[in-house]
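Same chain as my last thread, 155 residues:
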Amino acid sequence: MFVDAVAGTGARIVDTRKTVPGLRMLEKYAVTCGGGHNHRLGLDDGVLIKDNHIALAGGITEAVRRARETAGHLHKIEVETSNRNQVEEAIQANADIIMLDNMSPEDAANCVQLVKSVGDERRPLTEASGGINLDNVRAYAEAGVDLISIGAITH
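reply #2:
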């Protein structure tokens, strides 16, 4: 249903790591069978810098710097943001993916335009997350995000 709701927009529906204990691989497989994509299978599949990490490091820039210093060369670094200022900092810090967490579709569209202004060679992916359901998923897709993560598809 979610995949059909965003058809033709270029946005991809992805699951989250939140799955039923013991059923993760089956639920992840079901998502791909339904046309969705897997976000990550485990904590070690990429670096996700959340608000508590940002606070501990003293800011997005320092959190990304520390992650780059210790993560393997194949790991992507994603930063959770909740406002335009954080998106700007994540861009400057060279995050690979910027999560637009709990933003309205309008705010997400504004941040996507900011991200797209950096040019293709440095442009991070954008991911909308939080509060997304069948009634509003199309609006997030039309905002121009690359990914839309939805925990409900594996709950």
